[in-house]
Every structure is written in structure tokens, then in C-alpha cells.
Design a protein that fits this description.
The structure holds two protein chains of two kinds.
Chain A lengths: L4 E8 L16 E4 L4 H9 L3 E9 L1 H6 L1 H14 L4 E4 L6 H18 L3 E6 L3 H6 L4 E5 L6 H16 L7 H4 L7 E5 L4 H14 L28 E6 L3 E3 L15 E4 L11 E3 L7 H5 L7 H9 L5 E8 L7 H17 L4 E5 L2
Parallel strand pairs in A: 1-3, 1-4, 4-5, 5-6, 8-12, 8-13
Antiparallel strand pairs in A: 2-3, 9-11, 10-12
Helix pairs in contact in A: 1-6, 3-4
Chain B lengths: L1 E8 L2 E4 L4 E3 L2 E4 L1 H9 L5 E9 L5 E10 L2 E5 L18 E7 L1 E6 L8 E4 L14 E9 L5 H21 L8 E6 L15 E9 L5 E5 L2 E2 L6 E3 L1 H5 L3 E5 L9 H5 L2 H9 L5 E10 L3 H17 L4 E5 L5 H15 L3 E8 L20 E6 L3 E4 L4 E4 L15 E2 L2 E5 L15 E5 L1
Parallel strand pairs in B: 1-8, 2-4, 6-23, 9-11, 13-18, 13-19, 19-20, 20-21
Antiparallel strand pairs in B: 1-12, 3-4, 5-11, 6-9, 6-10, 7-8, 14-15, 14-17, 16-18, 22-25, 24-25
Helix pairs in contact in B: 1-2, 6-7
Classes of the chains: A alpha/beta, B alpha/beta.
Chain lengths: ~350, ~425
């Protein structure tokens, strides 16, 4: 028989049967073995898992000292050398939900073992932690205790054994917004025909990709005083110094480059090229200005139409590059530009 | 219009004295094959022909196109009209298929936009081409010719090879003959039959700059959306000229074996009425997208349909066309289902499409092309493995002694948007 997995359970003061609001200020402490809902877990998965310890923290202490509380709880958990961590369920208790989320996130990141919590869909902990954690969805009150405990135990066992978690619907956790590939039982074409037939008959069907909501950025009012403004050039069309010194990927870029153009009046095909893998590079390589119009911007600078050109240009590849990466690049680049007093950017794509 | 499609199962492939089908083995005279491929194309400087069988420890890279050998046995016209044979309308009579084998054109044109096929190991699961007996043609061309000429030289060489091999099936008795009778829309049972009337909207990538598809030899970006019979597609009326990410380019093989057409024909008259197919393009400019989507939706509406299946090719820019089709159809009360792949980032956490509309409410996802895969080294490489690092989906350190680590994007047809494969993606 395989040895039992060692688990630590995290609870607040109330579920650990220490006390109500008046005890919500207690600092992290530990109790040997299972307590309160931990007894239920022990009953459900006692053949496979042993709850070796319970770590408790008061909800107020946690929410007022998140960093210290997380560190303190984590140190106690680590002392047990567990294989997995369970936290809650927190149901609709907001401070408790956030604490469960913070503990599980820290366990996952720092101890690199699975950590599962559970809460009601509207608990503020869900919005904060659903992307980084598996959060089992519960009812709003302790009426949902047994159901939640069963799902948590099942999911924790799967993860501790290195098995895939299963879909949110079948495993009962709140969708994390993470897309994962799997092999379906029918081809895409067969699924498309069946989905359409159901749709036309008015039968229920589930789209395989629900439409996301886009960020929309309100444009700023037109720039005044162009003749005094410093302008910067940014391109997602992949124009880089020849040889692509930063190794920007031809698709799904994980990086961008910042290139010195002081004294560079035009881009020669001998010294610049495109790293972009989403279009035929022939014309961009013949004349890189087709993607990054440095030549005309230099003209405008000389004619006094613009105040001046920023001494660096930035380049990345916008070919299948994830929004998360693009947002990160933009945050860093915008930091440079704002710091250096750049008033406007010419952004060229392909 | 009636087409009989005779399938000649090919279960082994080998070099031999004469190119012929012996039992279930395709024997190929290597020298003659190479001569036929070269034709009179002076741009081609060398051709190497290699065989790759399912289960072998073989990696083929960089692959441009995949073509199935077929031969027109009876009826007007010939294979790949407008490019190899004349321009007569095809799609009736009889066609023989060497089922289970294919021709691969191999060679670096753009570098970024060719793909990879593993015949064994975990990568083989992602591509139907790993399950075929492949004749891989490594073709080199003259230094200094343009990429556009290079693309054309390889495209035509692949088609010539498929036609040459297909000839071997002309007099062979097929193991199975499917009969496809395509009726005019007016000849279909009226709506009272209770079966939904369904059309297929077939997007072909036509962005120019090496992202082109051909219909009867015509460059699709210059063609307004038009009707096509399913049997014409089976006879090679649509040919890929695409150098776009490997995972979601529709190769010529995919067109010849279009799975949406096959599914609709299979269910025609039982679960639905397959009323017709409209081919449309996916050009780069907004004006072209608006023109083509308006025009194609008009044709579909004119067929009097209840619903439409939309298939796609490529990602990013064509997402805009796909969303226009979904929106314009739904606004006219026609239900739409779209096949698309996803570019949700390596971690799967980003939005998957470059454009959206709330009216696109029935999507079939054929997988997240950004997901990472790790593939062990293979004993034999046909082509050049080092290209992986520049390929769309590869990274600077993709190639190591442990094999290849790259995005799924590098595998030919892995997220095919005609719905050829079983892969899907879901939220976890």
C-alpha cells in the first residue's frame, strides 16, 4: 500500500473552534491533527490522506497584516513537510476567503506543492486568486460543507498524484481563465456540425470559446504643440538591427528590443531587417522604412514639424504575441517614455 | 453532378523499378519521380526524394505543403485545374485516390512559416500527416530567385509529384467507391421536410505576400466569393500556396479531404440538407474584408439556409474576417458555427482571438497553438532541424540534445481550422 499523503489544513479562528469576532485578531498558531472541518476531510479521504496538522490565523490579523500573516502561516505549514495543503472552505466569508487564497498562492509558489481552497463564487477571494489557484465553488453558507469537502479532497488528490485536474465543470472548481489543450472524442468538423444542428433546433449547446471582453483604451485628445514635442517610434513589425541581437521570437514574442538611433538618419537593408514571422519579409527587408518610417520622421524633425525624435526606438513582434506579454512590454516602455518626457508615439504595425 | 471517388488503400511504400500499385504497396521509380517533379523548371537546382513511414523515428522539417496523389479517371478536366491541367470545370466522372500516402514539399522558403512533421514519438499524435506514408521531396532552388518564385517552384513541384504518383492508380480497382451526387439547391426537398438547410462558408487565406490560395489557378485575393461544388474540391480545384504558420495553414491535402464537406455530405438527407458551399477569401484590407463578407453572406442568404458552418485559415488578421461573417449571418437570422484555433499565450491565460463579436456564440476550438510541447530527438531528420529556432512557434533555445521544445504552432496541421484533427482547448 502506498504511504498516505501528508496534508496540512488552514482554518480561521471560527472554524478552528477558537472563537468568533472577539478572537479574530489572533496570530498564526498550529494544532496537531485535524480540527473542525478537518475531521470531515479525514472521514472522506482518510484512506489516502492524513491531516497531520492544522494551522490557524485570525481573520482580522490576516487581513491587516497580509505579508506577515502569510509568512507566519507558511512557516508553520512548512514545518510539517506536507504533500498538499487544504484551506477552508471559506464560503462567503470575505476576509477568510482572501486569507485562504493568499495562503494557497504562497504554498503553490514557494513550497511548490498543490494547495486547494473553496469558496462561494462572489467571495472577493475568487476574483483575487482564481487565475493562480484551483478554487472549488461552494454554496454561500456551511450548508454546502460536505459537497465542498468532497470536491476539494478529490481535486487535491488528483493534483498531488500529478494527474490532470479535469474540466471546471466536472471537477467543480471555478474556471481560472487558463486555456488547456486536450483531445476530444470527435474531430473539430464533426463537433462543428453537431453544434450547429443543436443551435438550429434550439437545443442547449456550449460554445468551446466564450467571447472575451476586450480592454478598450480611450484615445487622448490630439497633441498640441507638436513642434516642441519629442516623439518616439515603436513597432510591432519586428524591425531590428541585422542579426536580431535580442533574439526576439518570430512569433509569440517574449521580449522587445530598445535600439539606439542617435545619428541614424535612415535604415539600411544592410543593417536592419525584420524578425517578424507573420508576413512575407521580402519588402520589409528591402526597405525597413516600410515598417518603421524613420526616414520621414527625420525629415519632419529637420523641418521643425516635430520637436525631436527620441534617441531610441522599440521593436517587438506582434505575431501571436499574447496580450499579457504585450501589456508587460507596454508598461515598461511607457515607463521609459514618460520618465524621459516623450509626448507622443508613432506606433507602426504590419 | 456526380463524382465517384474510388479509394485505393496504400499500406506500404517503397522504391522500385516501376511506379505502380502492387497489392497495397506503392512502388516508386525514384529517378523518374525526380525527373517528373523537375519538369522544365529551371529554377530547381536539386531534388532529394525520401520516404517516411508512420512509427519511424523520423522528423521532416521544414515542410511547405502536403498533397494527396489522385488521378482523374473519367469525366472532364484533370487534377489541379488551372495549375497542372486545363481549366475545365472538374468534379464529375470518376477520380481515384491513393489513400494513405502523400507528397511533402520540403525546403526553406520563408523559414518562419514552414512546419514540422514527426513520424514517431509524442509529436505524431498532433498531426494526421504522421499517420501517412510520406514521399518527402527536399527541393533546392537557384540562389537569388525571389521568395515568390521559390514558393511557386515548390508548389508546382509538389502538384506534379502528386499527379505523377496518382497516375499509378488509374487502372487499379479501388477497394471502395463513394458516389457523391450534388443536386441544385432548387432540387432539394423544401423546408417542410423538417431538416435544417445548411451551407458551408469556406474561408481561404489570401493576404498576398506568400499567404495565398488558388481556385482553378486563380489567386483567391482577386476573386469575389463564389459557389463551388464539393466534388470540385475533391478534384483539386483549391490549392494551397501558403507560407503561414504550420499549425493552421490549410494544405492542399486538407482541401482535397475537406472534413467539413465530408461531415455535411455524410449527414445530407438524414440530419440536414447540405445546400451549398461558398468559397471566400481573407484579404488584408478592411475594404476587402467588408466587400467579401457582404458578398459571401448575400450568396449564402440567397441559398435560403438556416445555418452555416464557417471554417478559417491562419490567425490574427483573419480573425477580423471570421467575426464579420459570424455577425453578418446572425444579424440576418442565420445561425453560424465557426471553427477556429486559439493563440492564448504559452500559459493559456490571454485572450485567444484578435477580434471578437458577441454574435460569435458558437465556436469550435481546435486548440491553443501557443501551448508548449517537448519532442525527443529523432534518429533521422529529412531537411534541416536547425530551422526550428526561427520558425513561428520556435525559440532561440528550441533545439537541444533533449530534442525540440517549441509551441504546438510548429506542427503541420496541428490546429487545422477545417476541423481535421481531434484537438480542442478548454478553460481550466
Amino acid at each position: 500500500m502506498e504511504p498516505k499523503l501528508k496534508a496540512v489544513h488552514y482554518l480561521n479562528q471560527f472554524f478552528a473552534q477558537i472563537g468568533g469576532e472577539q478572537m479574530a485578531g489572533i496570530k498564526p498558531l498550529q494544532k496537531v491533527g485535524p480540527v473542525g472541518p478537518g475531521l470531515l476531510f479525514q472521514q472522506i479521504c482518510g484512506d489516502d490522506v492524513e491531516i497531520v496538522g492544522t494551522v490557524v490565523c485570525g481573520d482580522n490579523y490576516f487581513s491587516e497584516n497580509i505579508q506577515q500573516a502569510t509568512d507566519g502561516v507558511l512557516a508553520l505549514i512548512k514545518g510539517y513537510e506536507p504533500d498538499l495543503v487544504l484551506a477552508g472552505p471559506a464560503f462567503n466569508a470575505g476576509r477568510y476567503g482572501v486569507a485562504c487564497g493568499a495562503v494557497c498562492e504562497a504554498v503553490t509558489l514557494r513550497l511548490k506543492i498543490p494547495a486547494i481552497t473553496a469558496m462561494f463564487g462572489e467571495n472577493p477571494g475568487v476574483e483575487l486568486y482564481r487565475k493562480s489557484l484551483y478554487i472549488v465553488e461552494t454554496q454561500a453558507t456551511t450548508l454546502g460543507m460536505k459537497d465542498a469537502a468532497q470536491k476539494m479532497a478529490q481535486l487535491a488528490l488528483r493534483l498531488a498524484r500529478g494527474e490532470p485536474p479535469g474540466s471546471p465543470a466536472e471537477a467543480g472548481y471555478i474556471a481560472r481563465g487558463i486555456r488547456r489543450n486536450f483531445f476530444a472524442s470527435q474531430t473539430g468538423a464533426a463537433r462543428a456540425v453537431e453544434m450547429l444542428l443543436r443551435k438550429l433546433k434550439g437545443e442547449p449547446y456550449t460554445t468551446e470559446y466564450p467571447m472575451p471582453t476586450f480592454d478598450r483604451v480611450e484615445p487622448l485628445p490630439p497633441l498640441e504643440g507638436l513642434s516642441e514635442a519629442t516623439i518616439a517610434l515603436i513597432t510591432s513589425g519586428g524591425i531590428v538591427p541585422k542579426g536580431n541581437p535580442d533574439h526576439i521570437e518570430s512569433s509569440s514574442a517574449s521580449r522587445y528590443g530598445r535600439y539606439d538611433i542617435r545619428g541614424v538618419m535612415s535604415l539600411s537593408p544592410r543593417t536592419y531587417e525584420t524578425a517578424h514571422g507573420g508576413y512575407d519579409p521580402t519588402f520589409a527587408n528591402e526597405d525597413p522604412h516600410r515598417v518603421l518610417p524613420l526616414d520621414v520622421v527625420r525629415d519632419l524633425e529637420r523641418e521643425g514639424v516635430i520637436g525631436g525624435l527620441y534617441p531610441y526606438y522599440y521593436a517587438t513582434v506582434g505575431n501571436g504575441t499574447s496580450v499579457a506579454s504585450a501589456r508587460e512590454f507596454a508598461r515598461e516602455i511607457a515607463g521609459d517614455l514618460v520618465r524621459d518626457g516623450v509626448k507622443a508615439v508613432l506606433l507602426s504595425s504590419t | 453532378m456526380v463524382l465517384e471517388l474510388g479509394r485505393i488503400p496504400i499500406e506500404d511504400i517503397d522504391w522500385g523499378r516501376e511506379t505502380s500499385v502492387e497489392g497495397r504497396t506503392l512502388q516508386i521509380n525514384r529517378q523518374e519521380l525526380i525527373e517528373k517533379i523537375r519538369g522544365s523548371d529551371s529554377r530547381i537546382t536539386s531534388i532529394m526524394a525520401e520516404l517516411a513511414r508512420p512509427g519511424e523515428s523520423v522528423r521532416i522539417i521544414p515542410v511547405k505543403d502536403v498533397v494527396e496523389p489522385r488521378v482523374k479517371v473519367e469525366g472532364r478536366g484533370g487534377m489541379f485545374p488551372g495549375l497542372i491541367s486545363g481549366v475545365e470545370t472538374v468534379g464529375h466522372g470518376r477520380t481515384h485516390v491513393l489513400d494513405g500516402c502523400s507528397v511533402l514539399t520540403v525546403g526553406q522558403i520563408v523559414g518562419f512559416q514552414e512546419g514540422m512533421i514527426d513520424m514517431g514519438g509524442p509529436g505524431a499524435r498532433y498531426s494526421s500527416f504522421s499517420k501517412l506514408l510520406n514521399v518527402a521531396l527536399v527541393i533546392k532552388v537557384k540562389e537569388g530567385i525571389s521568395k515568390h518564385e521559390h514558393e511557386e517552384a515548390l508548389r508546382m513541384a509538389g502538384l506534379r509529384a502528386a499527379v505523377y504518383l496518382g497516375e499509378a492508380g488509374r487502372r487499379v480497382k479501388p477497394a471502395e467507391v463513394s458516389r457523391f451526387e450534388i443536386s441544385a439547391p432548387s432540387g432539394l426537398k423544401p423546408i417542410t421536410s423538417g431538416l435544417p438547410r445548411i451551407a458551408y462558408l469556406y474561408m481561404l487565406l489570401s493576404q498576398g505576400l506568400l499567404h495565398d490560395s488558388y481556385l482553378y489557378g486563380r489567386d483567391m485575393k482577386t476573386v469575389l466569393p463564389t459557389f463551388i461544388m464539393p466534388t470540385e474540391v475533391m478534384d483539386g480545384a483549391i490549392v494551397s500556396g501558403n507560407c503561414v504558420s504550420a499549425c493552421d495553414k490549410n494544405t492542399t491535402y486538407h482541401h482535397q479531404n475537406n472534413p467539413v464537406i465530408n461531415e455535411l455530405l455524410k449527414r445530407d438527407g438524414r440530419e440536414l440538407h447540405f445546400v451549398g458551399t461558398v468559397v471566400t477569401n481573407a484579404n488584408v484590407t478592411l475594404r476587402d474584408k467588408e466587400r467579401s463578407s457582404d458578398y459571401a453572406v448575400k450568396l449564402v442568404e440567397w441559398l435560403g439556409v438556416d445555418g452555416v458552418i464557417i471554417s478559417k485559415e491562419g490567425f490574427g488578421n483573419p480573425d477580423a474576417d471570421a467575426m464579420m461573417y459570424c455577425a453578418k449571418l446572425e444579424e440576418r437570422g442565420i445561425g453560424a458555427t465557426l471553427l477556429t484555433d486559439e493563440f492564448a499565450g504559452v500559459d493559456g491565460g490571454s485572450q485567444s482571438l484578435a477580434d471578437t463579436t458577441p454574435l460569435a456564440n458558437a465556436l469550435v476550438s481546435v486548440g491553443n497553438a501557443n501551448e508548449m510541447i517537448a519532442l525527443p530527438p529523432m534518429d533521422r531528420v529529412i531537411g534541416d532541424e536547425r530551422i526550428i529556432e526561427k520558425m513561428a512557434g520556435g525559440q532561440p533555445a528550441s533545439l537541444s540534445e533533449r530534442g525540440i521544445t517549441a509551441e504546438l504552432q510548429v506542427i503541420m496541421g496541428a490546429t487545422n481550422e477545417l476541423g481535421f484533427e481531434f484537438l480542442s482547448s478548454r478553460e481550466e
